[in-house]
């Protein structure tokens, strides 16, 4: 199946762990130029979806990037086909400096022999990524002593230097301050101008501000899909987020009030 | 100073080379020069272990296997070279006067084949073994146990094939080394020089690997293997390269050990020998450049001086040293340097140029105000 215009197309994706269906037939697509959000309560299968797309979990169905099938390939192969991802907990190489982290990530397209040489100078691509993620001043800092937000930006930078076609971000703003969230959201919007950006998020406020389209997952299935306002108005989404006790008032809750409660619901959900 | 800093290890290697190749032959007696050659062999194996374990995180507890491959390849060649043409090695006739030379001995008559085998055998064995292990993501304790078991298995195999390999008595009584008479002092110095030069070469190779992008990737793989996949690399391949290089170094070490020491037995390649190899690396500092080599040489020296005069005590001293090092210096003695440097900076408080300036300028001004 060929996705239109180099899109990431997920069709009928299923992931099972020993008989437990974590993702049961999810389909969605993401195009360059939009910041695509994947939301849902805890255990909805959001991260599992991303794991399956990046080859960490085995899934069935189809995941294509442009005309390339991704399912069934190894993680490192999928990365080389142009899919980058970040993790819920920043996983930069703490012993290496910011520059070394970016350099090691940019090595993707180097020949194996050049690996035997030491690094000389800084790649222009790395320089521009440093600029983009706002860590130019911190280039020699060991990644281990960066703040939480800076680590997440460094991770995004490490994806950027790989020049991926699709970036998958798993809860990029969790634990960030309001200012950092704004900076991250704007960074994602800039990146999304030429690339596919898919964000898994709990934070409804962040989603409302930066999402172009949203897919809501619940118990491993797609519950609702569409623009932010559309999804917020969907009674099924409200039911999932507010629980059965709220069904009587669900219809009368204005979209804005709902986002506040869903944020709370999501936060409660995190403890489960 | 800052421009000099990246080259400090090379200067260190150069100093080490002068000490080994110029000073040692001039100062040491033949007996101690020979011993130093033996320590160089262990140091070569240790440099490889430093790469695989210190930088790559693979606890290679069975380097005796590769040490043994190189050693027995060399020993078979030297045995055949010392045997009159048409006759058999003495030990074979001893066990069976009618025996014929086993087929696998035959190619080791050739100089070229022997040298090629010393290089290629460990590369092939480590390549196949490492590929199978790392692709299946076997690591940590499982990898360590497996490599240790292999060393035991090889030692047992050699012990039990006394007719073909000499068994526990090993191979000895070598008279010639590629045409040179081994009993000649000048030739002994030559063999020592070869071992010392190869140690220097191995240090240079590991220095370059450590500073290369491969070295950074290897450390990254050690610290976060799964994350490396998302850089587009297969960590198995990165570990495989380090493992094969370490195996090659161990094999070269074994091959030189034979003409220097004059005997190779399964005891030199079994479990305890393998552990002693890694012990020197742990003592010196596994992740540093010089730590493994110097640690291995120190252990070797301890064994031949203390170990021979006071064998019972030596084992306890060795044990005690290890307990102390693992408790207080987990990264080995070489981490003392970093700590000392840190202390020096702290006691000075400020960089020297900032310290020198204010004293002469401020003193007179202060005096003027108070008076």
TrEMBL record, chain A:
> Please, which domain of life does this record's source organism belong to?
Bacteria
Q: Which SMART domains does the entry mention?
A: AAA
Q: Which residues form the ABC transporter domain?
A: 8-244
Record-linked InterPro entries: AAA+_ATPase, ABC_AA/LPS_Transport, ABC_transporter-like_ATP-bd, ABC_transptr_urea_ATP-bd_UrtD, BCA_ABC_TP_C, P-loop_NTPase
Q: In its keyword annotation, does this UniProt entry include ATP-binding?
A: yes
What are this entry's molecular-function GO terms?
A: ATP binding
Q: Which UniProt keywords apply?
A: ATP-binding, Nucleotide-binding, Transport
Q: Residues annotated as region Disordered?
A: 248-272
Q: Which NCBIfam families match?
A: urea_trans_UrtD
Its name, as the record gives it, is: Urea ABC transporter ATP-binding protein UrtD
| Organism for this UniProt entry | Agromyces salentinus
Q: What is the lineage of its organism?
A: Bacteria, Bacillati, Actinomycetota, Actinomycetes, Micrococcales
Gene that this sequence comes from: urtD
TrEMBL record, chain B:
Short name of one Pfam family: BPD_transp_2
Its topology with respect to the membrane?
A: Multi-pass membrane protein
InterPro entries, alphabetized: ABC_transp_permease, ABC_transptr_urea_perm_UrtC, LivM-like
Main localization (coarse):
membrane
Q: Where are the transmembrane segments?
A: 7-30, 36-53, 112-134, 140-158, 189-209, 240-264, 313-338
Name where it's found.
Cell membrane
Keyword entries, A-Z: Cell membrane, Membrane, Transmembrane, Transmembrane helix
Q: What is this protein called?
A: Urea ABC transporter permease subunit UrtC
- State the gene name recorded for this protein: urtC
């Amino acid at each position: 199946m060929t996705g239109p215009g180099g899109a990431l197309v997920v069709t009928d994706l299923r992931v099972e762990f020993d008989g437990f269906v974590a993702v049961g037939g999810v389909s969605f697509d993401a195009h360059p130029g939009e910041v695509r959000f994947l939301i849902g309560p805890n255990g909805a299968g959001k991260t599992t979806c991303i794991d399956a797309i990046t080859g960490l979990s085995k899934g069935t169905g189809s995941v294509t990037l442009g005309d390339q099938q991704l399912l069934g390939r190894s993680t490192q192969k999928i990365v080389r086909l142009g899919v980058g991802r970040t993790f819920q907990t920043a996983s930069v190489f703490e012993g290496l400096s910011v520059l070394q982290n970016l350099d090691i990530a940019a090595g993707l397209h180097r020949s194996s022999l050049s690996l035997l040489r030491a690094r000389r100078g800084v790649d222009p691509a790395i320089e521009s990524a440093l600029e983009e993620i706002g860590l130019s001043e911190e280039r020699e800092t060991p990644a281990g002593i960066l703040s939480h937000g800076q680590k997440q930006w460094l991770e995004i930078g490490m994806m950027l230097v790989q020049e991926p076609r699709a970036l998958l971000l798993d809860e990029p703003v969790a634990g960030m301050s309001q200012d950092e969230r704004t900076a991250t959201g704007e960074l994602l919007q800039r990146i999304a101008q030429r690339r596919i950006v898919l964000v898994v998020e709990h934070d409804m406020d962040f989603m409302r501000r930066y999402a172009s389209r949203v897919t809501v997952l619940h118990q491993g299935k797609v519950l609702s899909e569409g623009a932010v306002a559309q999804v917020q108005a969907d009674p099924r989404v409200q039911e999932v987020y507010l629980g059965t006790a709220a069904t009587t008032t669900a219809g009368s809750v204005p979209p804005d009030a709902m986002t506040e409660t869903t944020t709370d619901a999501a936060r409660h959900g995190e403890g489960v | 100073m800052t421009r000099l800093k990246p080259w400090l290890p090379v200067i260190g290697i150069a100093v080490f080379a002068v000490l080994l190749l110029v000073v040692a032959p001039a100062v040491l007696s033949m007996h101690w020069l020979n011993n130093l050659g033996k320590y160089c062999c262990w140091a070569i194996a240790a440099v490889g272990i430093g790469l695989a374990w210190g930088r790559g995180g693979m606890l290679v507890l069975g380097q005796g296997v590769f040490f043994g491959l190189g050693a027995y390849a060399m020993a078979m060649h030297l045995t055949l070279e010392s045997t009159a043409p048409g006759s058999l090695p003495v030990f074979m006739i001893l066990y069976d006067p009618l025996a014929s030379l086993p087929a696998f001995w035959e190619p080791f008559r050739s100089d070229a084949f022997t040298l090629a085998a010393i290089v290629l055998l460990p590369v092939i064995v480590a390549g196949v073994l490492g590929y199978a292990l790392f692709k299946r993501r076997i690591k940590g304790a499982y990898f360590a146990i497996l490599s240790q078991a292999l060393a035991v298995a090889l030692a047992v195999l050699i012990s039990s094939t006394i007719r073909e390999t000499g068994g526990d008595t090993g191979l000895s009584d070598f008279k010639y080394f590629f045409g040179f008479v081994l009993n000649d002092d000048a030739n002994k110095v030559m063999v020592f020089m070869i071992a010392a030069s190869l140690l220097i070469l191995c240090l240079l190779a590991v220095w370059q690997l450590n500073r290369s992008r491969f070295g950074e990737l290897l450390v990254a793989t050690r610290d976060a293997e799964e994350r490396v996949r998302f850089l587009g690399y297969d960590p198995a391949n990165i570990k495989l390269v380090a493992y094969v290089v370490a195996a090659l170094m161990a094999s070269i070490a074994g091959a030189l050990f034979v003409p220097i020491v004059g005997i190779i037995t399964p005891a030199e390649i079994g479990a305890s020998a393998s552990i002693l190899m890694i012990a020197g690396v742990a003592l010196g500092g596994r992740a540093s450049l010089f730590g493994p080599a110097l640690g291995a040489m120190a252990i070797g020296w301890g064994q031949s001086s203390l170990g021979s005069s006071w064998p019972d005590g030596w084992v306890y001293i060795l044990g005690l040293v290890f307990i102390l090092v693992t408790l207080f210096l987990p990264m080995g003695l070489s981490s003392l340097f970093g700590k000392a440097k840190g202390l020096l900076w702290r006691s000075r408080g400020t960089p020297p140029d900032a310290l020198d300036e204010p004293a002469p300028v401020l003193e007179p001004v202060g005096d003027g105000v108070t008076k």
